[in-house]
Input
Amino acid sequence: MVRFYYQDTDFVFKPKLRTKQWLNAVALNETRSLGAVSIIFCSDNYVLDTNVRYLHHDYFTDIITFDYCEGKILSGDLFISVDSVRENSIHFNTKFDDELDRVIVHGLLHLIGYDDHTPEDQKMMRSKEDHYLSIRKVSQ
Output
């Protein structure tokens, strides 16, 4: 079950049902199933504080993924900085909603087991993101 939460932001995420269905399709395509996945939309400062407190990384990021998966059941927390996503959408000249979906599926791909530490991993992750972005239903 995917649930949505907010911390230190006025942002409101509207396409909840579409996103739940899309993430379920991603999981099934990767021979996984969705367990308890929390998507927490928050500010840059909240993500930075979480990054420092729990991962000892003193830098901003658009997403932090905490993995609680068991076997093929995907469970975890995705902390998403709405501020960083907004900045990235401007930097990469993309729609905010598209960039947000990219970050959401990026977090789910981490739960599935994909990583982005090496250039090869990054290339695979980007390819998976592009593929799954292409199959989402645009109508909300």
In short: The mean pLDDT is 95. The CA atoms of residues 67 and 76 lie 5 Å apart.
